[in-house]
């Protein structure tokens, strides 16, 4: 209703919606709210392709969501649909969905600035210089596999495994971190907790201190991860869940080890392998750096601007 009464939309050549996920199904059913004005937008988290693409389990709504997505592509004034999911674009092209040529792939963003030496970062954080540090970073919930990582660290005492937990915890993780066994890990110098929001400087510090980054999500996490590209920016290998875009990227680009994070033995084995194999760590880190070069804010912005410029040119020609 707001769009239909806003005559100001007539002033623009193109309208760009930065996140369509909140209303793309309404768009599919009701059409564009912008009248005859061309528009574009970004779809961050499509799901119906995950099962046939091998990225996750099927959903009861997959057939409905695919139908709605085909209607979305069919909106005449939708000029471009940006996505950050490479397998999704490939799936739509392979399935020959009508007007899949509107889909434009852009790179998700994950970059770091101000990295410091490992020695100075560990000194600032109070971590032993010879520890094998596994970083788990970001908003901390059970879905991130925090307990699974800490249990594996607890059971890997022979290699001085050390967990660096950095980010804002939810209530469940705050309770976990205050448990007696986690406190024992802290007292033994095998767990460092930075339970707070990290600005750019503190973010760079925790990545600088790490040997490996943990992305072992559990309970269903299939979308993109900016932390994956931050790990690459820091030249660090990752231990990742097997499913979803994260596991797909780790395998495709050889960024580390993908596994079932709920399998404690597999997690311990992954930690042991990366600890012992410095050549593997370095190779995965270099692969990550090359990948991260294409996932900066500048690359992301340029891809969006290029897509919008091409769409505007096409709309003027038509």
Features:
single chain; 6-stranded parallel beta sheet; 318 residues; alpha/beta; 14% strand
What does the secondary structure layout of this molecule look like, with pairings?
Elements lengths: L14 E3 L6 H7 L8 E5 L18 H12 L4 E6 L2 H9 L8 E3 L12 H8 L6 E6 L8 H9 L6 E6 L4 H7 L2 H8 L3 E4 L5 H10 L2 E4 L10 H8 L4 E4 L2 H10 L2 E4 L4 H13 L1 H15 L4 H21 L1
Parallel strand pairs: 1-2, 2-3, 3-4, 5-6, 5-8, 6-7, 8-9, 9-10
Helix pairs in contact: 1-2, 4-8, 5-11, 9-12
Strands in their spatial order, largest beta sheet: 7-6-5-8-9-10
Order of helices and strands: EHEHEHEHEHEHHEHEHEHEHHH
Query: What global shape is seen?
Result: elongated
Radius of gyration from CA coordinates: 22 Å
Mean pLDDT: 93
Helical/strand content category: alpha/beta
The count of β-strands is 10
- Characterize the main sheet: 6 strands, parallel
Percentage of residues assigned to helices: 40-55%
Low-confidence stretches: none
> Helix count, per DSSP?
13
Amino- and carboxy-terminal Cα gap? 28 Å
Strand % is 5-15%
Describe this structure in words.
The chain is α/β, with parallel strands linked by helices and 318 residues long. 43% of the residues lie in helices and 14% in strands. It has 13 helices and ten strands. The chain has helices spanning 24-30, 62-73, 86-94, 118-125, 146-154, 171-177, 180-187, 200-209, 226-233, 244-253, 264-276, 278-292, 297-317; strands at residues 15-17, 39-43, 78-83, 103-105, 132-137, 161-166, 191-194, 212-215, 238-241, 256-259. α1 crosses α2, α4 packs across α8 (200-209) and α5 (146-154) packs across α11. It is elongated and about 65 Å long. The model has no long low-confidence stretch (mean pLDDT 93).
């Amino acid at each position: 209703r707001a769009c239909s009464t806003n005559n100001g939309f007539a002033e623009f050549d193109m309208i760009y919606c930065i996140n369509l996920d909140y209303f793309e199904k309404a768009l599919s059913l009701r059409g564009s709210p912008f009248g005859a004005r061309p528009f574009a937008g970004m779809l961050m988290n499509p799901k119906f392709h995950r099962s046939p693409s091998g990225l996750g389990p099927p959903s009861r709504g997959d057939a409905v969501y695919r139908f709605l997505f085909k209607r979305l592509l069919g909106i005449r004034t939708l000029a471009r649909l940006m996505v950050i999911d490479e397998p999704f674009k490939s799936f739509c092209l392979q399935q020959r969905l009508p007007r899949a040529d509107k889909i434009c792939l852009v790179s998700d963003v994950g970059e770091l600035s101000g990295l410091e030496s490992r020695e100075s970062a560990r000194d600032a954080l109070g971590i032993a210089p010879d520890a094998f540090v596994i970083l788990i970073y970001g908003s901390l919930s059970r879905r991130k596999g925090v307990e699974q990582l800490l249990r594996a660290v607890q059971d890997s005492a022979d290699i001085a495994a050390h967990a660096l937990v950095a980010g804002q915890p939810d209530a469940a993780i705050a309770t976990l971190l205050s448990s007696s066994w986690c406190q024992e890990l802290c007292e033994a110098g095998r767990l460092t907790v930075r339970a707070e929001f990290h600005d750019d400087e503190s973010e760079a510090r925790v990545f600088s201190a790490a040997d490996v980054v943990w992305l072992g999500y559990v309970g269903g996490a299939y979308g993109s991860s900016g932390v994956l590209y931050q790990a690459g920016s820091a030249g660090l290998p990752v231990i990742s869940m097997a499913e979803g875009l994260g596991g797909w990227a780790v395998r495709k680009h050889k960024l580390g080890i993908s596994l079932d994070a709920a399998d404690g033995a597999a997690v311990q084995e992954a930690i042991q392998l990366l600890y012992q194999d410095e050549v593997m760590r370095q190779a995965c880190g270099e692969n990550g750096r090359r990948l991260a070069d294409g996932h900066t804010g500048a690359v992301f912005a340029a891809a969006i601007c290029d897509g919008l410029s091409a769409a505007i040119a096409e709309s003027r020609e038509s």
